[in-house]
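Re: that backbone. Tokens:
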């Protein structure tokens, strides 16, 4: 069971450190000399915020100070009062998390979100009887600290646009994914699609049809109408019957989906925007999609609003005879 000191320590700590003379003296006494030489402690300001998790608030409290560096940049001094009488082995991990939260708050307050980040210097005040034995660096908390120290804080960049397709294709399965991500918006579409289907054909021989469908769907949904025609053209030229069939089925699915969306949009547009917007957009949408039902729904609204049949026929491009049958006789 975790033992804690008296809770008044929290209030006392915060009230005392709000006095700039106390805070300035504390940091002058404890900050490393090399760091102090880079700071202008006269600019020390208390930042009214806290980053301690709710589950730890009975064990610790924190204060954040902002200070200017000699280069006129900001630096945060993050001060944590540890009220547990036992040593927390994961303190370094929690301090990293609190520091990230502090930096995120700092970024939100900046006009330029791409501005460089300030330094955060974490400090822990501990008054427990047992000697503090927890690691000071988060690196020692990893199972393989040397590996973490070399690779954790520096990310690896895989810049697909700087890698040749031939290099990516050396790994058929992952290469196909990377080539698709790289070339979805490629200018020379037909050549790319021919290369893509060549790789898909290799997968078909290795029971990769499900993965192949996933890749085709990703490419197809990013294409405009002309690009989709090119996709179908290249797909029809494939020797593999199953691959060719999968591609054509995919194209038909998207065509039907688009038709249904067009129908729904035409009807909803007439309902939500009214007759005037229906004239300007609903009718145009109906013309583009070839949706007879959408045109008729708009015609009914126009007729109910008093628009003449001749005007309705002109606006909707529906035959006058058909309008008389649908509108006049039924009324």
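Recovered sequence:
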């Amino acid at each position: 069971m975790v033992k804690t000191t008296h809770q008044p320590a929290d209030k006392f700590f915060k009230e005392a450190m709000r006095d700039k003379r106390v805070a300035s003296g504390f940091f002058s006494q404890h900050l490393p000399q090399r760091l102090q030489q880079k700071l202008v402690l006269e600019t020390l300001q208390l930042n009214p915020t806290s980053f301690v998790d709710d589950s730890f608030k009975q064990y610790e409290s924190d204060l954040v100070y902002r200070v200017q560096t000699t280069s006129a940049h900001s630096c945060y001094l993050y001060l944590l009062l540890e009220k547990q009488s036992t040593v927390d082995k994961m303190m370094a991990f929690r301090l990293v998390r609190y520091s990230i939260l502090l930096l995120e708050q700092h970024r939100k307050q900046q006009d330029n979100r791409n501005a460089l980040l300030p330094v955060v210097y974490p400090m822990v005040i501990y008054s427990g009887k047992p000697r503090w034995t927890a690691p000071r660096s988060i690196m020692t908390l990893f199972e393989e600290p040397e590996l973490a120290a070399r690779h954790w804080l520096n990310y690896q960049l895989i810049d697909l646009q700087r890698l040749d397709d031939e290099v990516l294709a050396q790994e058929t399965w992952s290469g196909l994914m990377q080539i698709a991500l790289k070339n979805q918006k490629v200018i020379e579409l037909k050549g790319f699609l021919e290369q893509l289907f060549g790789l898909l054909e290799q997968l078909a021989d290795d029971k990769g049809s499900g993965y192949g469908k996933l890749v085709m769907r990703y490419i197809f949904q990013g294409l405009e109408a002309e690009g989709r025609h090119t996709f179908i053209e290249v797909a029809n030229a494939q020797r593999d019957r199953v691959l060719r069939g999968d591609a054509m089925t995919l194209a038909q699915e998207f065509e039907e989906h688009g038709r249904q969306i067009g129908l729904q949009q035409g009807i909803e547009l007439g309902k939500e925007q009214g007759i005037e917007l229906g004239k300007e957009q609903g009718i145009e949408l109906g013309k583009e999609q070839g949706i007879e039902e959408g045109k008729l729904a708009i015609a009914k609204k126009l007729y109910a609003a008093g628009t003449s049949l001749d005007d309705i026929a002109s606006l909707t491009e529906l035959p006058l005879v058909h309008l008389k049958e649908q509108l006049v006789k039924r009324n």
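Strands lie at 39-47, 60-69, 74-82, 119-126. The mean pLDDT is 82.
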